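This entry is listed below:
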Amino acid sequence: MRKRRLIPIIAILLAAASGCSQSQQLANLEPAATAAQSKPTANADLVLIKGGAFKNTKSGYYGTEIAVADFYIGRFEVTQQEWAFVMGDRPSAFQGERLPVENVSWYDAIEYCNQRSVKEGLQPYYDIDRNHKDPDNHSDNDPLRWTVKIRAGADGYRLPTETEWEYAAGGGALSRSFAYSGSDDADEAAWNWRNAGDRPLSGTWNWPAIENNRTRTHAVGGKKPNELGLYDMSGNVREWCWDWYKDPNLGSGLFRAVRGGGWIGDVGSIETAYRGKFEASGFGPDQGFRVSRDAETDR
C-alpha cells in the first residue's frame, strides 16, 4: 500500500494563488466508491501523435529547431476507474469513476505507469530505486528522492515529456495556434476556476469564491477536444510530465514539470504554453496525469 505524502496547507494556498495551484481537500461531494473490480472501458485508448516541428505560433518552441518524434498519448486524463483497477485504491478528493484521478504525486504516476504495464504484459518503462537518493534531485522538501531511470527499449506506459505534452496540447502538425487546447475560448476548452463550480464566476482569481462555489473536477471528455482529438489538456487537472522543471534562475532538480493548469488555477495557467512546476512528492486535488507510450513499440 502506498503511503500518502502530506504538504503544508499554507503552501497549497500560496501555490494556488500563483497559478500553480493546490488546495485542501473538499468534502460533501460525490460519495466514495469501492475499488473497481472490472477492467475500465472507453478511456483507455491512446492517440498516435505524428511528430515534427512546432506549428502553434503561441508555443515557446515555435520557430526553434526543437521537434518531437512520433509518440502515443492518452486521449483522456487517467480516470479514477483506471487508477483503481491498476493500483487498488482511491486517493482522489472528488470521487467518481469518470473523474480524473488526482491527489497523486509524480512518484505515484511513475508507479502507475509501471504497474499498468505489467498488468497488460508490457515491459515497465522505469527502473525505480527507492533505496538510493537521486543525485539530480536537489530539493530539500522531497522526503523520497527516489532514483528513477528509463529502461532502454521498454514498451510500457510512461509520462509524456514536457516537449511532447506541449506539442500535443497545441495541436501538433494540425495546430490552428489556439491559446488553449482546442480553442481560444477558455470556457469552451477547459474546466477552470470560473466555470467548474455550481455557478459561473468572473473577475480576478478569488480563493474564497472558488471554495464556496463547490468548484471541482469534472468527468473527462466533457469539453471540446483539440485538433488531435485530445480532451482536457487545458484545465480539469494539472498533468505531470517526466521532466525536471528547468529555469535559468532556478536551475534544475527542484521541481517536476506540470502542464495544462486545473480547476483551481487562474486562466493563464491553462494556456498550452504555460509551464508549471511542483514538488515530485507533492499532491493535491488538482494534480493528475495522462499516459504516453513510444510510437515505435509493437502495438
